[in-house]
Amino acid sequence: MSKTKETMDSRELGLVLGQQLLGIDDMHYGMWDEDLEVKFSNMAVAQQRYTDMLLADMPDPAQGDVRVIDIGCGTGHIFGQLLDKDYKADGLVPAPGFAKLVNQKLEARKDKPAHLFQIPFEQFPVAENSAEYDVALFSESFQYIPVEQSFPILEKIVKPGGVIIICDFFETENVGDGGPGDRSFGGGHNWKKFQQQMADSPFEIISDTDITSKMSPNLDMVNNFLMNVLAPAGQTLGRYMRINYPKTSKLFAWLFRKKFAKAKFKYFSGLRSKETFERYKTYHHIVLRVPEK
């Protein structure tokens, strides 16, 4: 029997680099209020403020059992907090690398009943989980699922009167305008189209808060790290390779020239800035309610 080839996508790579270089064990952006200085040493505080904002949307578990599904739970950072706060929580993550990290967190919480679905949300077992959840949470994961597939599933698995929390960024109408940073950021549903999809859905819009200005400072912080730390280190390594292994260096550069050019544009052009993000993305904190039958 042949072994399954292990792969790593860009989000997993970002997590590994974040853990190894910056000591960050979470995937989502931090939320930067005016009183919080934007620097890596404050990242954990900014991320916790983001998490606390999401938790504030949920019913109090002290008033009775509250079942939550954390869809696209990444490393399980928020998932673990839900369990610690006595929510009856399940998680969902399709990536094997992330699932391994989440299972480690669950292993440390054996006294908390929880289940991890290791499948894409589009394959969620709806029939077995009809009207199962009081809350469905998407923390920067909604962008990866087609709306026309996610909404019908949510309508079936969230209880009448339950809530759907979406915290994610969307594409603005400026995408494709050919500006300097155009296409430097991937991801996100089209915001204008999504507004119409929400209006056409059976869900009631409880709140829709634009928090772009609180999330965009992450980009300046990361851009500074890329340009002033990683880029010089990469240049030094490249110079070492060219001097000591000229033939190998030339061959490697030729074989991966397209990938290098793409990475240089996305990460080392200086365009991944707060201003570019705010032009091409809009970040929203949305709460929807499933109507009572």
Characterise this structure.
The protein is of the alpha/beta class. The protein has 2 domains: 10-213 and 281-289, 3-Layer(aba) Sandwich (Rossmann fold), CATH 3.40.50.150; 218-267, no CATH class. The protein has helices at 10-22, 43-55, 77-84, 96-107, 147-157, 191-200, 212-215, 217-244, 246-255, 257-267, 274-280, and strands spanning 67-71, 88-92, 116-117, 133-139, 158-171, 204-210, 281-289. Strands 3-2-1-4-5-7-6 form a 7-stranded mixed beta sheet, with helices on both faces. Helix 8 packs across helix 9 (246-255). The longest helix is centred in the last third of the chain and has 28 residues, at 217-244. The radius of gyration is 21 Å and the shape is globular. Residues 1-12 have low confidence and may be disordered.
List the helices and strands and how they pair.
Layout: H1 10-22, H2 43-55, E1 67-71, H3 77-84, E2 88-92, H4 96-107, E3 116-117, E4 133-139, H5 147-157, E5 158-171, H6 191-200, E6 204-210, H7 212-215, H8 217-244, H9 246-255, H10 257-267, H11 274-280, E7 281-289
Parallel strand pairs: 1-2, 1-4, 2-3, 4-5
Antiparallel strand pairs: 5-7, 6-7
Mean pLDDT: 86
Calculate the terminal CA-CA distance, rounded to whole Å: 51 Å
Task: Encode the helix/strand succession as letters.
Answer: HHEHEHEEHEHEHHHHHE
Amount of beta strand: 15-25%
Radius of gyration: 21 Å
Which spans have pLDDT < 50 for at least 5 consecutive residues? Answer: 1-12
- Named CATH topology of the largest domain: Rossmann fold
CATH homologous superfamily grouping of the largest domain: Vaccinia Virus protein VP39
Q: What is the CATH-assigned architecture of the largest domain?
A: 3-Layer(aba) Sandwich
